[in-house]
Structure formats: structure tokens, C-alpha cells
Amino acid sequence: MPKISKSSTKKTKTKTKKVGVAIKKPKKIIKKNSVKEKKAKEPIKISKNYTPKDTEKYMCDKHLSFFKIKLTEWKKELVRANNEALYHGSMDDNSVSADVVDQASSYTDKTVEMKAINRQIKLISKIDQALLRIKNNTYGFCEETAEPIGLKRLMARPVADLCISAQEKHEKEEKVYADD
């Protein structure tokens, strides 16, 4: 019987050696991954009076940060204006007139204000989409053709997602289907 017990201990020793080697290998891989994660992109600082130039590389980090700042400030302004309009519009609800003409005029004014607020809400969602494209590094390029939209167009309309030729094509298609 002693012979059987000796052979069983030898097998156990070899198994522990293999397990020890297998555990060491993943530790090395984890160390390599942690080094790569430490590298992070620092934010670009630009001056307040900076404007993108055609001589710079198209949609470089400066351009993207400029448009990000422009879009976020525009969004804040729109949200503030909408909140004020809604607050002042709710204040006018208390004045109920007995005159039917005055009531109709008030109703028309509120309808116009609400349409303007709805347009601004749609614009805010377009600004959010543009900010998402900046985050994904697709801002400034046409969604249909993947060509550069152009700095002049983006300065005039920062939420533009189509180049001029694609926008013209889109508008022509809208006109055709609107006639039906």
C-alpha cells in the first residue's frame, strides 16, 4: 500500500506547479492594459475671440472645441428664453376677459408663442445631435456624402448636418413631394 500513496503525491505536486504558472500569465496582461488606460486626452483651451481659419486642418481639435463652446452657449440661451416665455405666458392666464374679441386675440398670441417655443425645442434637439457628432468626431462632415460641410456654412448654421449640394438635393425632393 505505501507504493500507491507515493505515486499519488507525485501527481499532486506536478498539478500545483501547472496551476502556479497559469496564474502568473494573466497578471502580466492586466498590467499592460492598465498602462494604456492612464493615457487621457486633455481639453483644448482657446481664446474667446478665436475664429476657425481655412489655413488650419479641417475639424482639428481647436475647431471642434470652438463649435462645442458655441453650441453649448446657444443651447443655454435658448433654454433660458424658453423658460422665461413659459413663465410669463403662464402669468397671463390669470387675466380672463369677458370680451370675446379679447379672448380670441389672447388665444392667438399664445398659439404663436407656443409655436415659437416648439421651434426652439426642435432646435435644442438639433444642437444636442450636433454636440453628439462633436463627441463622435463626425461633426463638420456631411451625413449623406461624408464630404466636409465647410467652415463658412458651419459658422452660419452650426447645426448643419448636410453639405450644400446634399441640402439642395434634399430641398428639391421635399418640394416634389410637397406638390403631391
From TrEMBL:
Q: Where is the Zinc finger DksA/TraR C4-type domain?
A: 138-172
Amino-acid biosynthesis in keyword set? no
Which Pfam family is one of this chain's hits? DksA_N
Top-level taxon: Bacteria
Zinc finger regions, dksA C4-type: 142-166
Q: Cross-referenced InterPro entries, in alphabetical order? A: DksA_N, DnaK_N, Znf_DskA_TraR, Znf_DskA_TraR_CS
Where would I find the DnaK suppressor protein DksA N-terminal domain in this sequence?
64-134
Key words, A-Z: Metal-binding, Zinc, Zinc-finger
Full protein name: TraR/DksA family transcriptional regulator
